[in-house]
Amino acid sequence: MSFFTDLAHQYIDGEWRPGKGSWDIIDFNPFNGEKLASIPVATAEEVDQAYRAAESAQQAWADTNPYARRTVLEKALRIVEEREPEIAEAIVAELGGTHLKAGFELHLAKEFLREAIQLALRPAGQILPSPTEGKENRVYRVPVGVVGVISPFNFPFLLSLKSVAPALALGNAVVLKPHQNTPICGGTLLAKVFEDAGLPAGLLNVVVTDIAEIGDTLLEHPVPQVISFTGSDKVGRHVATVCAANLKRVVLELGGNSALIVLDDADVDYAVDAAVFSRYVHQGQVCMAANRILVDRAVEAEFTEKFVAKVASLTVGDPADPATQIGPLINSSQAESISRLVDETVESGATALLHGRADGNLVSPSVLTGLPADSPVLQQEIFGPVALLVPFDGEDEAVRIANDTPYGLSGAVHTGNIERGVRVGQRIHTGMIHINDGTVHDEPIVPFGGEKSSGLGRLNGESMVEAFTTQKWISVQHGRSQFPF
Q: What percentage of the chain exceeds 90 in pLDDT?
């Protein structure tokens, strides 16, 4: 596909060029195994070149009138709108996203670009009083300088853009490393969009590479002041450790093990719809997905019957078919891991109301219930189409079960009494929770992030200003200070 081969390069200092590594990252279609592109990996030397290019270009960009910076992002938005069908096809091909998922991702991407346009004008300074006579304290918001962005494979275009666009809008330069399974949608496609939008060379650099080639160069390099990472908590802990040792700030958006709670007064039909979407959207490869569906025993039988029936009706197959609701997992390793997890959980005593099977990277949905309280699967993130149904007796037990996890990203509570739902939601140790809705939500101006092992910091809205700028104090003495010697 020429779309992919045209973008199968490194993008450093405004130049498209092959990587100098001795091996290639192969970009496959996860549904049919078609080779989309082959990209020679970037070396540690090229990562250095990307960071140095960003450093050289950044100050002039920071000094650029924010209205001019905003114009570049406005052009980027128009380009995404114009090329939306082409980008959607790329999402379907490169990551096995269904048409529904591609539309969902692009809708959010455009919304986040619109917010980034506004962010260019958002940083505001302050004048603060001083106890010293004649002194004026000015506090400025200034760009951090260079931001390193590491993005995941599940929503690559959106989650790369979500950090890249605000960082640029606020006057920074960026070096982006996309996931190896989605180097185009998560990386070079963004470079092309911003290049065509008129972004000056050096401000956005994309390095397609792997830790096997560069080690921790991307994190340890002296140029970046902030690293924005989205991915697993295991890798996130490593990122945090390395960055702490190098005194770098981090924004970590990590995994989840969200609970969708169905209370005894919930609208069961509506809760079923919300739960099915929250668990199975994009084959369950979503950090906010409802891993655990907690159901009050008063409505357990009704909910379970309707939930299983709806899940069984989902169409599994080719993501290029608009009728498909469940496409492939990102690679064979993920497919094998999910199938093995289901088999082991059933062997350990769980009951499979639906037992999904693998056909290549396609894994049909599973629904498990009757899990032992100490089942390891209840504690982990499941990045695949597997739902765990867990009954409870009353609110207190629901809260206890929901909080019994090292994660705290998203969640939902279904109830006929909104304020009851809010009270329960306030007791759940999570960064985000939704009353009478699904668990998978992201909006441009609300703080997005998790607690516990689900991350550090927040993104979106004013949180972007906090993440990608720093404060600078300049005092002015209008009179004369008195010194003790």
A: 98
